[in-house]
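quick q for whoever's on today - can somebody do inverse folding on this one?? i tried earlier but teh output was garbage lol. tokens:
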């Protein structure tokens, strides 16, 4: 029988330690190369992390809030807004590496209209990532607005919109994790200079992203954002959240000012429908060809031909109205 000498024993002990250290160093290297993630997530204990992960992979994000899952653009889901709702912001990941906000949410005097998101400076080709885990609801093109854009529904009830992309790297109904690459920054649609238009919505209602996130610090401003349909939303801590009723109870309580909200929503909805109608047809102007029209309406020549029962050789008349969708 061979007994291990002291040096052999030491060697056996040292080997795993060296291996472990190497792993730790490697893991830290890997961590350092990942763009900053919400720093507060690390404070969550492992039990709630498991619970969060389990909850996150059911497949239909925020199914109890939204009436259905579809791939249509909307800012009105036709539901009664809850009086209050706790939106869990932990797990946030900055949508891009850039920290430079070039235009905030709110009224823009130069455009004489509201700006419903936060613009962050990015260059064409910059990586754009999902802000939370969730499921891609829309991958579309709106030449007069968002350009190439993506809408993701998240498990915390929020929907995020990423506009003016040069490339969309996800497909509709695809599940994504927080920080997963979804597209590349660009300058498509109504945009002057490449940037990311980042929007946050709750049941179709716009929320100023800067009420929840600090894009310069690439972090959340609080652990929870308390949405309110009767007043202004506010940030709350986990402790405060725990003292409040559950979201299920909160969601069952409709807000009394919903009627006023509904009016505004309905106007937005009508404007959306009008815009969709405008986009669904095209009046031929001088100089137009099927391919320029297809480009303007975000479709293909083949689709235009099929929809209008024409061929690529058909001569277009000025003033002729073509169906585009
Ligand atoms: Zn914008």
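ok took a stab at it. sequence:
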């Amino acid at each position: 029988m061979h007994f291990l000498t002291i040096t052999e024993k030491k060697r056996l002990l040292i080997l795993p330690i060296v291996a472990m250290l190497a792993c730790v160093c490697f893991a830290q290297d890997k961590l350092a190369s990942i763009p900053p993630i919400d720093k507060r997530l690390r404070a969550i204990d492992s039990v709630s992390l498991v619970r969060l992960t389990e909850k996150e992979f059911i497949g239909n994000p925020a199914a109890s809030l939204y009436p259905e899952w579809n791939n249509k653009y909307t800012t009105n889901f036709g539901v009664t807004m809850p009086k209050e709702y706790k939106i869990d912001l932990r797990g946030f990941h900055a949508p891009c590496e850039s920290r430079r906000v070039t235009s905030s949410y709110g009224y823009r005097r130069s455009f004489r209209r509201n700006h419903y998101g936060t613009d962050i400076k990015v260059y064409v080709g910059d990586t754009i990532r999902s802000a939370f885990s969730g499921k891609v609801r829309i991958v579309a093109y709106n030449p007069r607005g968002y350009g190439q854009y993506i809408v993701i529904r998240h498990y915390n009830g929020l929907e995020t919109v990423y506009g003016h992309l040069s490339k969309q790297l996800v497909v509709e109904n695809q599940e994504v994790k927080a920080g997963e690459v979804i597209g590349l920054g660009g300058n498509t649609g109504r945009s002057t200079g490449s940037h990311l238009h980042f929007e946050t919505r709750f049941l179709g209602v716009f929320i100023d992203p800067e009420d929840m996130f600090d894009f310069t610090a690439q972090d959340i401003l609080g652990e929870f954002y308390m949405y309110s349909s009767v007043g202004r939303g506010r940030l709350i801590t986990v402790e405060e959240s725990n003292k409040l009723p559950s979201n299920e109870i909160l969601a069952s309580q409709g807000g009394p000012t919903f009627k006023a909200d509904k009016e505004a929503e309905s106007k937005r909805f009508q404007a959306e429908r009008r815009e969709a109608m405008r986009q669904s047809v095209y009046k031929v102007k001088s100089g137009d060809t099927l391919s320029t029209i297809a480009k303007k309406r975000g479709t293909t020549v083949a689709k235009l031909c099929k929809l209008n029962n024409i061929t690529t050789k058909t001569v277009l008349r000025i003033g002729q109205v073509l169906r585009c969708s």
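fwiw The mean pLDDT is 81. also The chain is about 25% helix and 25% strand. so keep that in mind when u check it
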